[in-house]
Amino acid sequence: MSRVRETVEWGYKDIKQYFTTLDFRRKLKIRETAVGKQYLSGALLCNIRSCLYGNQTASYFGCDPPSLERYLTD
Question: Where are the domains of the chain?
Answer without folding.
Answer: 2-73
